[in-house]
Design a protein that fits this description.
four-stranded mixed sheet; Glutaredoxin; 216 residues; globular; 10 helices; 4 strands; alpha+beta
C-alpha cells in the first residue's frame, strides 16, 4: 500500500517516462495527444506501454468506466466536455465497449519501428475521433496501409503466439507495478494516474530534474 505521507520516489535515472495506455480509454486518448510534448520539454525518452485493462480488472474487480452506470454516464459527459474545452475531435466509437486487442498487439509489432508513434495516434484517432471499430479488420487495414506498411504481414504477426503472450506479460507487469487504470505514468518508481494529473506529473519531473542539476 502506498504511503500518502511519503515523498516522491523517483529512483530512476531521470531519462524515461513510462506511459501505460489502453486504446479503449478516452482519457488515455487525451493523454496521448500531450505526452510527447511533455517528454520533449524535459528531454525524456517516452516508453509506450500498451496494456489490456480487462486483464487487470479481473484482479481488481473494477468495471470499464464508460459502461459503469451513473459513473459511466458522468464520465461520458466529462469526456465530451474535456474535448470541447481543448478542441479535440471526439465521438463514442461503435460498437461500444471497445475491443482494442488487435490494436494493442499491433503496438508490439511496430515496437522497434520509426512509425510506432504514428501507429498509436492513428489507432486512437480511428477510435475516438472517428468512432470506428478497432476490432474490425477494415479499420486496422486502413490504419496499417495508411502508414505504408504491409497489411497481410501485420495481420499474421498480431495473431502469432509470441505477440499474444507478450501483451499478456506487459499487462501483468503493469498490474504488479500497481497500474489499475489508464492512463498511468511512471517516472522512476513515482506513479501518476489520470489525464487530468499530467500537470502534477510535469511538476514532479521538473522538481526531480532541478534537484539533479543542483546536486550535480
Amino acid at each position: 500500500m502506498m504511503d500518502p505521507q511519503a515523498g516522491p520516489n523517483f529512483s530512476g535515472d531521470g531519462t524515461v517516462l513510462d506511459f501505460y495506455f489502453e486504446f479503449s480509454s478516452p482519457y488515455a486518448y487525451f493523454a496521448s495527444l500531450n505526452v510527447e510534448a511533455l517528454c520533449a520539454r524535459h528531454g525524456l525518452e517516452l516508453a509506450w506501454k500498451p496494456i489490456m485493462l480487462g486483464g487487470i480488472f479481473k484482479h481488481t474487480g473494477a468495471k470499464p468506466l464508460l459502461g459503469d452506470g451513473m459513473r459511466g454516464e458522468y464520465a461520458t459527459m466529462d469526456c465530451q466536455r474535456w474535448a470541447r474545452r481543448h478542441g479535440i475531435p471526439f465521438q463514442l466509437p461503435s460498437p461500444f465497449p471497445v475491443n482494442s486487442l488487435k490494436a494493442a498487439r499491433g503496438v508490439l509489432y511496430f515496437w522497434d519501428r520509426s512509425c510506432l508513434a504514428a501507429y498509436i495516434h492513428a489507432c486512437f484517432d480511428a477510435c475516438w475521433a472517428e468512432g470506428r471499430d478497432l476490432f474490425e479488420e477494415g479499420t486496422m487495414a486502413d490504419i496499417v496501409a495508411g502508414l505504408g506498411e504491409e497489411v497481410e504481414e501485420f495481420s499474421a504477426a498480431i495473431a502469432a503466439p509470441e505477440i499474444k503472450q507478450r501483451l499478456i506479460a506487459e499487462t501483468e507487469t503493469a498490474r504488479l507495478r500497481g497500474v489499475f487504470g489508464a492512463p498511468t505514468f511512471f517516472y522512476g518508481d513515482e506513479m501518476v494516474w489520470g489525464n487530468d494529473r499530467m500537470g502534477l506529473l510535469e511538476e514532479l519531473i521538473a522538481e526531480d530534474l532541478q534537484s539533479r542539476s543542483v546536486g550535480g
